[in-house]
Amino acid sequence: MSLAPKPPTPTMPTGPTPPAGTAIPPRPPQMGGPMGSQMGGPMGGGQQPGGAPTMPTPRPQAPDRRTLVVGRGISLQGTVADAERLVVEGTVESQMIQATELSISQTGVFKGEVQVEDAEIAGTFDGTLTARGQLVIRGTGRVIGTARCRRLMVEDGGQISGKMEMLGDAQVSPGPAPRAAYAEG
User: Fold this and answer.
1) Helix, strand or coil, per DSSP, at residue 40
2) How far is 40 from 55, CA to CA, in rounded Å?
3) Which end of the chain offers a freer environment for a tag, N or C, measured as fewer CB atoms within 10 Å?
4) What distance in Å separates the CA atoms of residue 2 and residue 73, rounded to the nearest whole number?
């Protein structure tokens, strides 16, 4: 009996056409030396046989912002540290929060003190808010307590109850600038 002619042709693929689409990077030893180098060229585009250094480069970690989202129906009490952006859809009670940006949605409630660069209030803020940049109070927003900011924008329907202070640019503005309290109550 001669069984030798059957195993070489169907079992072991000798041409680069069948294995090129099936086993790309994980099985270069099964394909053989010359086939592995042909497949590595179009995959990574690198001159090194591994091709691994080109894959980890598309990570955009620089624009990532540390964001804390307190979702609807969630209540958080305590101190938040190292959050660049705080989004409140539920309830937050805090003694002091420092962040770059504060966003309170229509369902959000914040009670306490916060110092941020910019703030957008569409829900309820109750406490002391200092926005070194811009404070935006949406039509559904309510600020109760003390609010300090450099620039203020209040949409129709937005409410301020308490003390409002405008932060100045030191002594650059001539004359009495907008340092008056807008709402008292």
Assistant:
1) helix
2) 13
3) N
4) 76
Q: 């090194």: which residue's tokens?
A: 48
Are the C-beta atoms of 92 and 70 separated by less than 8 Å?
yes
pLDDT at 59 over 80: no
> Which pairs from 51-56 meet CB under 8 Å and 24+ separation?
51/25
Amino acid letter, residue 109: V
Burial code (b: 16+ CB inside 10 Å, e: under 16) for 62-75 equals eeeeeebebeeeee
Q: Which residues contact 88 (CB under 8 A, 6 or more apart)?
A: 70, 102, 103, 104, 105, 108, 109, 110, 123
Alpha-carbon distance 155 to 64, whole Å?
30
Q: Is 26 exposed, middle or buried (0-12, 13-18, 19+ CB in 10 A)?
A: exposed
Q: For 72-131, how does the pLDDT look when each residue is reduced to its tens digit (9 = 90+)? A: 999 999 888 888 999 999 999 998 888 899 999 999 999 999 999 999 999 999 999 999
Q: How far apart are CA 58 and CA 110, in angstroms?
A: 37
DSSP class of 167: P
